[in-house]
Design goal:
The chain is of the alpha+beta class. It has 8 helices and 8 strands. The chain folds into 2 domains: 193 residues, Alpha-Beta Plaits (2-Layer Sandwich), CATH 3.30.70.1230; 76 residues, no CATH class.
């Protein structure tokens, strides 16, 4: 008799804008080296291109998440190209892992969106076989959790978000888990109601101004590196971050201050990463 599918939690992570960057900067691919583990998360990226910078730091952040999963003691991490699946056994652990990963990605200048869902997961087989002439890589895994996590991430809500599948709503303690409502959108393909607040709840010991800089200067850099037709992702992220700040008892960050980049950089003297448009 076949064993019943396991019900678990699946987190799908996808880098935003990756396909467009590959098309734009594809000639830089030969300059990239493999991304190995053990590299410090916030160390400077050796890549000069925006594609290389984001790809390298995306995988650095995923490795940090994999190490967190190992400390939890159970789960699965499947990473491929510009995306990843994480299987986590409890909702609390899944939200904590997603929150830490998204904060790392955002503060390292890597735009990403995530979908978290509950459902079945079955791992059948993983195979890698390489020779000088032929390489063969096979990943056989499936389940309703896999499908729902992907559908949640791609539901049509823009921005750097950790979106929660509607089936999770009865399980959410929204205050304790720091969950905020999602603004409705006509483009939504799934009735997603909630997202995870991933801003750091602990105030920075260097003061609120420094805390603001870390949170918003990375967003400012990312919007400066993005073509105009895709900047709505960062406008929506800005609005979501102010909702997250409100939940943490912090004042809204003014849009005018966000736009006044030169003055802000002059006052604080810090940038997460210099924009390639400078």
């Amino acid at each position: 008799m076949a064993q019943p599918f396991e019900t678990t939690f699946l987190l799908f992570v996808d880098m935003l804008g990756f396909a467009a960057l590959v098309e734009k900067e594809g000639d830089e691919l030969n300059e990239l080296s493999p991304v190995f583990t053990g590299v410090e998360l916030y160390s400077p990226s050796p890549a000069e291109s925006l594609l290389g910078y984001r790809f390298i730091n995306f995988h650095h952040c995923l490795n940090e998440a994999r190490q967190r999963l190992q400390k939890i003691g159970a789960g699965t991490a499947i990473v491929f190209s510009d995306s990843a699946f994480f299987r986590i056994e409890s909702l609390d652990d899944a939200i904590q892992l997603a929150r830490a990963l998204m904060f790392d990605l955002a503060t390292n200048g890597v735009p990403a969106r995530m979908g978290l869902a509950r459902g079945s997961y079955r791992m059948l087989r993983f195979v890698t076989d390489s020779s000088a002439q032929v390489s063969f890589h096979m990943s056989q895994f499936l389940g309703t959790g896999v499908v729902r996590a992907y559908q949640t991430e791609s539901c049509g809500i823009p921005g750097l978000r950790i979106l929660l599948h509607p089936d999770l709503e009865p399980l959410l303690d929204k205050d304790a888990m720091r969950i905020i409502p999602v603004s409705r959108s006509e483009k939504m393909r799934l009735n997603v109601l909630s997202e995870v607040n991933y801003l750091d709840a602990a105030p920075c010991n260097l003061g609120s101004d420094f805390d603001d800089c870390i949170q918003f200067d990375s967003l400012r850099c990312m919007i400066g590196e993005t073509e105009e037709q895709f900047q709505y992702h960062y406008h929506e992220t800005f609005n979501a971050w102010n909702q997250m700040r409100a939940q943490l008892g912090r004042a809204p960050y003014p849009w005018e201050k966000f736009l006044d980049r030169d003055e802000y950089d002059h006052v604080h003297g810090i940038r997460v990463r210099p924009s390639t448009n400078d």
